[in-house]
Amino acid sequence: MVSSSAKSPVQTREHRERGQPLERQKLGILEKKKDYVVRAKNYHTKRLRVERLKEKAKDRNKDEFYYAMNNQKTDRGVHISYRENQSLTTEIAKVLKAQDANYIRTMKRANLKVSLFPPAAKRFALTRIPHQRIASLKSQLMILADLVRTNSKMDEE
């Protein structure tokens, strides 16, 4: 005789629940156990959430005050934000774009300086420099030489 634990899972089948009797069909679909479990879990999570909110409301300090509260508004307990759908003026947008461009330019220059001048410990290490590194340094040197030439031409004019 084979024990129940040795049976193949293929042999076992799901037990089906009965349908709604004909005389009770007017009441709707018969709720099955799995439907009840989902509904019960949903109910309990909502009830726990409400209990936690009640506990928070009970424990809150009614005398708590911040000066920023003077400038804030609520509508039926919901905080109203003033900055949601306001568009920026063209002047402010231009200033912000100029600041962004300056920041990008500064970061590019800083990255160029960092790549040209590695830290002193690496600078004096007696190791072989890979060919790719030499090629990149040459290209950066050519870019700098072009910049110097254009600046000197502008100074002459």
From TrEMBL:
Region (Disordered): 1-26
Protein name stated in the entry: U3 small nucleolar RNA-associated protein 11
GO CC annotations, alphabetized: small-subunit processome
Cited InterPro entries: SSU_processome_Utp11 (IPR007144)
Chief site of localization: nucleus
Compositional bias annotation for Basic and acidic residues: 12-26
Protein family (similarity comment): Belongs to the UTP11 family.
Chain's role: Involved in nucleolar processing of pre-18S ribosomal RNA.
GO term, biological process aspect, one: rRNA processing
Comp. bias intervals (Polar residues): 1-11
Subcellular location: Nucleus, Nucleolus
Keywords, in A-Z order: Nucleus, rRNA processing
Pfam families according to UniProt: Utp11
